[in-house]
């Protein structure tokens, strides 16, 4: 029988083998984020795994999943556990991801021999052409594999696969794909939201439109948010970010593409650019105070609120760089970089602040590229360095990117930071 993810039926030697030098500090996760203790036993009898695969699954659920989805609620653990057991591709990717995370954070393997890159892609072919929800989850996990490998690699192919799978599902319910998002299974909704989130971040770095009609999918045309008052449509429970902020970031990425496209033909209207930017700024300034957290959820609520505040301020930095250009001394850019730093410093007062910072790599990098203030630069570098020491990921790549942009600007030949990071995915 397959052991439950957070309990062990292995020997005491195995438990000792997993012990971290700073275990209490390493595994702090808000209550409710772990897999529920009662899992339907049928899910533990689907496959016959060898001992190394068992160890990898336990490691993934205990250490990797909380890093991948640090703000997700407890239901995501059960969703992921079922997805893993519904797809051979998903299991293969989880083994690879767990072993890579173990090597990156603790300097050693747990005995699983990870294949060469070409063998990885052969074994997880279903992740490139997903047929089931589990296969689509494998695509999303391969994006994480690329991130844990430094933020580069074939992440675009896997993102395209996950997005195509999600869009195909939504397109079966025209003209209101929002109805499909509300009525679908929890696992399908999780895949759609995660695909959409990665796609929006990729749209910023690739300077393209989002593949999803995010505004139409998540925003109520009447002006009253379905959004975070409807859990099926809220991005807060999965990404820890208010849906208004997600919509605004997607619209800002679309605006950047629109600006570049018209700029190439000499037909860009600056007044229209400003008007469109102001509409996005209105979305970001929309108050959303409909949260009434249960007292038991206060810490998680605060973490999500801090994450959302950082996203709001840093998205304003990005938006004004689109409107005004990449000028660190633009007043709106300077003000919102300072607000981003203020929000991040507030997050440092929370005992589990690492989960806020982990999901802020993109935001820190954007703000870091667009500031010339030495104290802010040093602060962003310190946050990324500390995060790189604790988790596998692309923090070192983000530090290198910021330094390249700073060096270029100080040398008198400013470089567009989006061009520098075009082949990178910062999450």
Helical residue percent?
55-70%
Main beta sheet: strand number and arrangement? none
DSSP summary, beta strand count: 0
Order of helices and strands: HHHHHHHHHHHHHHHHHHHHHH
- Terminal CA distance: 36 Å
Shape: globular
How would you describe this structure in keywords?
mainly alpha; 22 helices; 0% strand; 63% helix; 427 residues; globular
What is the element layout, followed by pairings?
Layout (H helix, E strand, L loop, with lengths): L11 H7 L4 H4 L24 H18 L6 H10 L3 H19 L10 H7 L1 H4 L4 H16 L6 H16 L6 H7 L2 H21 L7 H5 L17 H4 L3 H23 L4 H15 L13 H27 L6 H17 L6 H5 L2 H9 L4 H17 L4 H16 L6 H4 L7
Helix pairs in contact: 3-5, 4-8, 5-8, 8-9, 8-11, 9-11, 11-14, 14-15, 14-16, 15-16, 16-17, 16-19, 19-20, 19-21, 20-21
Describe this entry's structure for a reader.
With 427 residues, the protein is mainly alpha-helical. The chain has 22 helices and no strands. It has helices at residues 12-18, 23-26, 51-68, 75-84, 88-106, 117-123, 125-128, 133-148, 155-170, 177-183, 186-206, 214-218, 236-239, 243-265, 270-284, 298-324, 331-347, 354-358, 361-369, 374-390, 395-410, 417-420. Helix 16 runs parallel beside helix 19. The longest helix is centred in the C-terminal third of the chain and has 27 residues, at 298-324. The protein is globular, with a radius of gyration of 21 Å. The model is unreliable at 1-47, 109-115 and 221-226 (pLDDT under 50).
């Amino acid at each position: 029988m397959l052991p439950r993810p957070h309990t062990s039926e292995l020997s005491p030697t195995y438990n000792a083998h997993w012990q971290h030098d700073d275990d209490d500090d390493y595994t702090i996760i808000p209550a409710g984020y772990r897999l529920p203790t009662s899992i339907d036993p049928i899910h533990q009898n689907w496959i016959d795994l060898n001992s190394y695969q068992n160890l990898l699954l336990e490691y993934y659920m205990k250490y990797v999943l909380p890093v991948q989805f640090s703000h997700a609620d407890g239901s995501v653990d059960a969703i992921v556990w079922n997805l893993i057991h519904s797809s051979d591709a998903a299991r293969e990717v989880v083994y690879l991801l767990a072993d890579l995370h173990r090597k990156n954070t603790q300097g050693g393997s747990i005995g699983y021999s990870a294949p060469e890159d070409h063998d990885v892609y052969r074994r997880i072919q279903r992740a490139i052409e997903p047929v089931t929800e589990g296969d689509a989850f494998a695509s999303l996990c391969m994006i994480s594999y690329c991130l844990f490998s430094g933020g580069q690699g074939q992440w675009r192919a896997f993102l395209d696969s996950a997005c195509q799978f999600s869009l195909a599902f939504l397109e079966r319910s025209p003209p209101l794909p929002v109805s499909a998002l509300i009525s679908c299974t929890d696992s399908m909704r999780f895949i759609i939201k995660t695909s959409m989130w990665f796609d929006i971040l990729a749209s910023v770095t690739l300077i393209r439109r989002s593949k999803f009609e995010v505004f139409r999918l998540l925003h109520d045309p009447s002006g009253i948010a379905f959004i975070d008052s409807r859990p099926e449509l809220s991005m807060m429970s999965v990404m820890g970010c208010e849906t208004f902020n997600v919509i605004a970031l997607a619209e800002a990425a679309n605006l950047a593409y629109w600006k570049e496209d018209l700029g190439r033909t000499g037909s860009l209207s600056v007044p229209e650019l400003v008007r469109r930017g102001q509409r996005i700024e209105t979305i970001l300034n929309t108050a959303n105070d409909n949260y009434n957290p249960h007292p038991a959820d206060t810490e998680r609520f605060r973490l999500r609120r801090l994450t959302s505040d950082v996203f709001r301020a840093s998205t304003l930095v990005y938006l004004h760089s689109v409107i005004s250009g990449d000028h660190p001394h633009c007043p709106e850019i300077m003000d919102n970089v300072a607000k981003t730093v203020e929000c991040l410093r507030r997050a440092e007062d929370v005992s589990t602040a690492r989960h806020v910072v982990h999901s802020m790599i993109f935001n820190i990098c954007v703000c870091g590229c667009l500031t010339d203030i030495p104290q802010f630069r040093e602060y962003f570098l310190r946050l990324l360095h500390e995060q790189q020491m604790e988790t596998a990921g692309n923090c070192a790549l983000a530090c290198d990117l910021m330094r390249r942009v700073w060096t270029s600007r100080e040398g008198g030949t400013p470089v567009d930071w989006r061009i520098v990071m075009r082949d990178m995915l910062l999450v």
